[in-house]
Structure formats: structure tokens, C-alpha cells
Amino acid sequence: MAAFSRYRSATGAGTLAAFLLVLIFGSPWYRDWAAAHTSAGTAGGWFLRLLAWPAWSFNTNDSLGDVLANDIKAILVVVLTWLFLKLTVGEQLARARGTLAQLFAGWSSYIFAAGLAALITTFIKSNPSLLGAFQSAGSGAMYGLFVGWIIGFAALGNYRGSGS
Length: 164
What we know:
The chain is mainly α and 164 residues long. The protein contains seven helices and no strands. It has one domain.
């Protein structure tokens, strides 16, 4: 185990990247900045606004269910990213360090994590519906598709053995 201490684990690196993405870009301060300084009609503005998707807040103007659902969604994105990374970036990729397999494993983990977090938390919100859950899952998967490459690159080239 001591020999592994000089390597960052792919699971740890990807989870840390997910945590930072959610913490920074899901914050109310970033969302307010993006809304005021970007245009949804441009590709760059659209992407900067998409980064704020796993929004968290402590807004007392919204219903308790909506605030709780958004906060849990942000937490679930990070926790589920860890879980999916743990399941996909394991011994089967141990000889594939630095390859595209590890990049895609991290990327897909974020897509699945965001989609599943959105699906689960829809039922906590006020007036939940199955259609709303499907639409939320689609929004989460779209977020993961366009942002998940960051998680893939964070996990790329890191140790993936039993110590990760």
C-alpha cells in the first residue's frame, strides 16, 4: 500500500474534480454572474450557463422541497460520480493507464451520475411527475455529456488498482 501512496487514484482525482465543479459552478454567486454576463444565444454563454446546472443554494424564497432537492442533487452528483468511478475504473483498466479507456470511464461516470441524481431528486420537488423526472434526467445527462470530459481528464493517467 505504501508503494501506491505516490499515485493519485483515478477515483479520488475524478471525485475531487466533480466536487470542485459542483462547489464552484453550482454556487449562487457563479449562477448570478453567468446570468448577468453571458448570453444563452452563444455557444460560450450556453456552456457557461450549463456549468451551473447542479445548482445548490439556501434560498428561502423557494419551497423547502425545491431547495432540498437542488442541494441533494448537487451532493448526489458528487457521490454518484465517486460510485460510478469506483465501479468502472478498477482492475480491468489497471494496465490501461493514460489510455482513452480511462478518459471515457470518467466521462461516462459523470454522465450517469448527473442523470441519475436528477432523476432521483425530481420526486422531492414540489409537484413531481414521471415526465418531469425523465426531463430532469435528460438535462442531467446533457450536463454530464458536455462537462464530464473534465472528470475524464482528471481521472486520466492515475492509479486504478485496489487502493483506489
